[in-house]
Write a sequence for this structure.
């Protein structure tokens, strides 16, 4: 009979506890201000003046690049260069880079922290079991009895719950959720940057390799001219000054070769590090320009869409959401904190009586803590939270403006790069014809040596300038792809990692 009464009493107390907890959850309010993002232009243009639609082509029918506005860029944007070896190298870098590994670890840490903060929504249940052996002094009872020894066995299950009446728990969770999503975008930004660095390094290798080949060909040509000049000097056709001048020109060209070779070695070492390997273990040969195809059509997202695709912009937005949650937490500190607790267990002097209904004990309690005087601390914390939000808002605007500026710069750069390549191609063609005429005239004696040297120097400069202009066009194309950010969310949706799935369900 006593056991039934005890169980009924605990169940009644527990039902009151659950009702109070549920009511507190339903009445929860939040002091988090709403998020207001700055407006972005709705038109398709990024640049001052009419946006470029396509670039100029070279006189030999070179690549014309077209810009397709309003179309999202694929996440694997490096495939636009149509280089299987480059695709494999980017994949290896994304798989092995310690930078990516660090970003992934930070994301896992943020996910774990979010799970820790989510636990506050649930009751905290604790089990306790104890046994003790004690002796009491008879003097405590006036000396009328002698001391006695006894054993005490206790066991209980306690439940503690923090009802989210003013939304503090929810705000803390939202802050950790924003930090988790921030780290996820940081991971995507790291991947985007790493892929851009790999592609740029490959282009640098190809450009430097081409310049080395051009310089070596020029050295061979100048050495042949030196032999011809020496032969003419021995025959009395030219003064020895011509021989010295040609020797000086040959040595000057040879002196440009070691810096180019050093630059190629640096690119090789850099590529090894990007791929997560030691330079001494790197066996990949440098890229050539023939292995990389300049993209002909480039999707350009609308400005309103760019803010959704750039991971750094989305990361900045999550920083704003975290700051807003901290404002809500600071405001909620002015209001009471409520704690509900309940326990049920048994306490007996003998093991055999531990499960006796007469040994049962239970309790239910509620507590409320209200700040009364904090010396201005709470107001200062609120001002600090607002100031932190203002800083993140300014940082978001700066990130958006910087992103739009990068896209605008890359678009204009490609427009100007095409014109530069076109001009440099014509310059090289003209220089090649002039050099051929000068060499033929010099052999026949109708052209003086100064004219030959002038034509030779002009042709050398034109060859190198064209190679650099072509490489710059490749690099600016890469810069545009990176500035556009890639369609990460399209890829995430295709793989089932949508926004709600990735961030998890809020309790």
């Amino acid at each position: 009979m006593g056991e039934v009464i005890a169980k009924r009493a605990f169940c009644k107390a527990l039902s009151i506890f659950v009702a109070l907890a549920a009511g507190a959850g339903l009445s929860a309010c939040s002091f988090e201000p709403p998020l207001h993002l700055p407006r972005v232009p709705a038109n398709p243009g990024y640049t001052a003046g009419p946006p470029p639609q396509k670039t100029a082509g070279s006189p030999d029918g070179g690549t014309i690049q077209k810009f397709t506005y309003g179309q999202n860029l694929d996440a694997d944007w490096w495939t636009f260069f149509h280089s299987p070896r480059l695709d494999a190298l980017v994949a290896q870098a994304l798989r092995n880079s310690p930078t990516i590994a660090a970003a992934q670890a930070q994301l896992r840490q943020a996910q774990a922290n979010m799970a820790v903060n989510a636990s506050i929504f649930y009751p905290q249940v604790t089990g306790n079991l104890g046994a003790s052996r004690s002796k009491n002094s008879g003097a405590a009872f006036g000396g009328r009895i002698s001391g006695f020894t006894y054993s005490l066995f206790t066991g209980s299950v306690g439940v503690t719950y923090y009802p989210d009446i003013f939304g503090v728990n929810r705000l803390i969770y939202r802050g950790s959720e924003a930090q988790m999503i921030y780290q996820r975008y940081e991971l995507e930004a790291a991947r985007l940057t790493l892929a851009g660095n790999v592609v740029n390094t490959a282009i640098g290798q190809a450009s430097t390799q081409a310049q080395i080949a051009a310089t070596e060909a020029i050295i061979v040509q100048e050495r042949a001219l030196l032999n011809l000049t020496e032969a003419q000097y021995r025959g009395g056709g030219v003064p020895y000054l011509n021989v010295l001048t040609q020797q000086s020109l040959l040595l000057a060209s040879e002196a440009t070769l070691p810096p180019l070779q050093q630059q190629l070695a640096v690119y090789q070492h850099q590529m090894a590090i990007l791929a997560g390997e030691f330079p001494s273990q790197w066996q990949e040969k440098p890229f050539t320009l023939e292995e990389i195809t300049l993209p002909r059509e480039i999707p350009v997202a609308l400005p309103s869409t760019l803010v959704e695709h750039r991971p750094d912009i989305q990361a900045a937005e999550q920083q704003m959401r975290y700051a807003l949650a901290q404002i809500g937490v600071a405001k909620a500190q002015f209001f009471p904190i409520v704690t509900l607790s309940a326990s049920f267990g048994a306490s007996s002097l003998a093991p055999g009586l531990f499960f006796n209904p007469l040994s049962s004990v239970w309790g239910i309690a509620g507590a409320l803590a209200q700040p009364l005087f904090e010396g201005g601390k709470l107001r200062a914390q609120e001002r600090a939270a607002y100031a932190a939000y203002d800083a993140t808002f300014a940082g978001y605007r700066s990130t958006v403006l910087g992103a739009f500026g990068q896209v605008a710069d890359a678009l204009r750069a490609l427009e100007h790069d095409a014109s530069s390549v076109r001009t440099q191609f014509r310059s090289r063609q003209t220089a090649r014809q002039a050099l051929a005429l000068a060499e033929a005239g010099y052999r026949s004696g109708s052209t003086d040596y100064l004219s030959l040297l002038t034509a030779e120097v002009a042709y050398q400069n034109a060859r190198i300038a064209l190679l650099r202009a072509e490489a710059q066009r490749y690099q600016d194309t890469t810069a545009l792809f990176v500035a556009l950010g890639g369609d990460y969310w399209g890829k995430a949706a295709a793989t089932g990692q949508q926004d709600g799935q990735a961030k998890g369900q809020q309790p």
Q: What stands out?
A: Strands lie at 66-69, 124-136, 148-161, 297-300, 337-348, 360-369.
